[in-house]
Design goal:
Blueprint: H1 2-11, E1 15-18, E2 25-26, H2 28-42, H3 49-55, H4 60-68, H5 74-92, E3 96-97, H6 101-110, E4 114-122, H7 123-132, E5 142-145, H8 154-164, E6 174-178, H9 181-190, E7 193-197, H10 204-208, E8 214-215, H11 218-229
Parallel strand pairs: 1-4, 1-6, 4-5, 6-7, 7-8
Antiparallel strand pairs: 2-3
Helix pairs in contact: 2-5, 8-9
Length: 230
């Protein structure tokens, strides 16, 4: 029986679950623009990128609590969420992939490993955008958020991983690459590893609080993921 298990594990390829916003998609400028445009509509002062990265947290209502000093009411949250997404999706059309992302996806696939994409962006908006960037063929699965936007990634990752079990994807050989502490928490929730990238929503100090590797480039993220998945 031990020999059978060893053979099965040997055939299990390492797997990367990629985050989208702030990781593969370099959209932080669009995020800041949308945040400040929505704040202006609601009478709040604009914030800098540095402040955003220092305070950002998922679920997003907690981020607004840090800015406002209290959680938004349900009515306020609906207005703020709608305003942000209206401005964000108008700006996101001009956002490009992070430096080297397309090449890294190609190389990982060519090496015989697998990868997927999981985002808290709405599924119906995510899928066509990924296809527009010409990278959808690299993923065994692409999942966006289905349901309310004030959720964390853990529950979504549970469903994402379960859907890939028939393809041989296992948590023990999976590494999630993302730009938020919530990504690390989600990975731990399913028994996977995580690498966090500083090019997105969090400051380095914030990311380091998660206790997982923190990197400044996606190339370094992939190298680290390969080491963690061995």
């Amino acid at each position: 029986m031990v020999d059978v298990i060893a053979v099965i594990e040997e055939k299990t390829a390492p797997h990367i679950v990629w985050d989208w916003n702030g990781t593969l998609l370099h959209d932080i400028d669009a995020v800041i623009a949308a945040t400040n445009a929505s704040f202006a509509e609601l009478g709040f002062a604009s914030i800098t990128l540095e402040t955003y990265r220092d305070l950002y947290v998922v679920p997003v209502p907690k981020f607004y609590e840090r800015l406002m000093g209290r959680l938004p009411t349900d009515a306020e949250w609906l207005v703020m969420d709608e305003a942000f997404h209206r401005h964000y999706w108008a700006a996101a059309e001009n956002a490009g992939l992070a430096e080297g992302a397309k090449e890294l996806l190609q190389e990982w696939t060519a090496a015989g490993a697998t990868q997927s994409l999981l985002s808290l962006a709405p599924h119906e908006k995510l899928v066509p955008l990924v296809r527009t960037h010409g990278i959808d063929r690299h993923f065994v699965r692409v999942d966006g958020r289905i349901g309310p936007s004030h959720t964390s990634k853990a529950g979504h990752l549970v469903r994402h991983m379960a859907a890939m079990e028939p393809a041989g994807v296992t948590a023990t050989r999976t590494v999630l690459i993302g730009d938020a502490v919530d990504d690390a928490l989600a990975a731990a929730h399913v028994g996977a590893r995580a690498v966090l990238y500083t090019g997105g929503s969090h400051s380095r100090a914030s990311l380091e609080s998660a206790g997982v590797p923190v990197v400044d480039t996606l190339a370094e993220a992939v190298r680290t993921a390969r080491e963690l998945a061995e």
